[in-house]
Amino acid sequence: MEPARALADAARELAAQATLSATLDRIVALAKTLVPGADSVGLVLARSGGLRSVAATDRLAADCDTAQLEAGEGPCLGAAGEEGTLLVVDLADGRWPGFAAGAVRRGVHEVLACPLVGGEWTGAALSLYAVAPGAFDHRAQDLADLYAVHAAVAMQSALRADDLRLAVVSRETIGRAVGILMQRHHLTARQAFVLLSRASQRVNIKVRHVADLVVTTGVDPDDTAELVRLAERVAGPRRGVRSRASTAEQVEAARLRAESAASRAADALHRSVTTLLSVARAHERAAAVHLRAAAAGGADAGYHRRRAAEHQRAAAAARRTLRARRDGSGTG
C-alpha cells in the first residue's frame, strides 16, 4: 500500500477510537505497523506535570521509555523538547550514557524519536525502537514524521473529549453532593456549594474531590479532620489544613506566590514559542514529504501537491505567529 493511502487509513482508524486509552494504544500499534524497521514503539506525554509513559506496544518499548524518564536523558526527551525528530543510529556514541547502556543490553540498536505537537500538552514524543542495525532509512524517517502529525491530531481530539467527559462527571458529582448537603442541613443550593468550597480551601483539595468524598463516604464538609484523613487515604498525604500565619509569614508567602506566578508566565511563553516552532517544522517536514511524492509522478501527484501547499501555508502561519510573539515579548 502506498504511504499516502496507508496514512489516510491510519488517520481514519485513530479517529474511530472511542476512548483516550484506546487512541493512545492505537497510535503506538499503527506506528509499529506503518514505519519500516520499527520493532517496538512507545509514547510519552506531558500535560500539567512532567513527561510520563502513556502507551507502548510491548515491554521493550515501555522499559526503554521508562529508562529515559528515570535517567532524565534520551532521544524521546529531546524530541518532546526542542530538538525535533532524532534518529539515533549508534547508541554507543556517548550522548546519553544513562540510557544507552540499558537500551543496548535490551537489544536495541537504533531509535527514531518524533515529536507530537499540539495545544493540549507541553511535550510529547513517539519513540520507535529497532533491534536491527540500519533499520531506519530516510523513507522510514519521513513516514514517521508524517504519521506523527496525524497521531498528534488524533491525540489532541481524544484528550479534549476525555477532559469534557471528566468535566461532566465532576459536575454531576458536585451536584449530588450539593443535594446531600441541602437535605442534611436544610440549605439552599448556593449555601451547600459554599460549604463545599470552604472545605476545599481549608484542606487544600479541589472542590470535586471534596464532593466525591461527601457522596462516597457521607463525610460532612465541616469535619476537617475526617476530610483530611479520607483524602490522604485516597490520594496519599496532602498539604493538609492551612494554619493561620503571622503577618510576616503572609507577606513572605505572597512574595513567593508572585515569584512563582512570574516564573510560570515565563515558562508558558517559552512553551508557546517552542510549540509554534515545532508546529512550523512539522508542517515543513510534511510538505517536503508530499513534494517528493508529487515529484515521483503518478496518479496521486495532484493530491500530493495540494497537501504540500496546505502544509506550507500552515507552516507560514505558525512562523508569522511565532515572530509576532517573539517581537511582543522581546525574545530573540
Automatic annotation (TrEMBL):
Residue ranges of the region described as Disordered: 307-332
One Pfam family named in its UniProt record: GAF_2
A GO molecular function held by the record: kinase activity
Record's keyword annotation contains Ligase: no
Transcription regulation found in the keyword field: yes
Keywords attached to this entry: Kinase, Transcription, Transcription regulation, Transferase
InterPro entries: ANTAR, CheY-like_superfamily, GAF, GAF-like_dom_sf, WH-like_DNA-bd_sf
SMART domains cross-referenced by the UniProt entry: ANTAR
Superkingdom as given in the UniProt entry: Bacteria
Name this protein carries in UniProt: ANTAR domain-containing protein
Protein source organism: Saccharothrix syringae
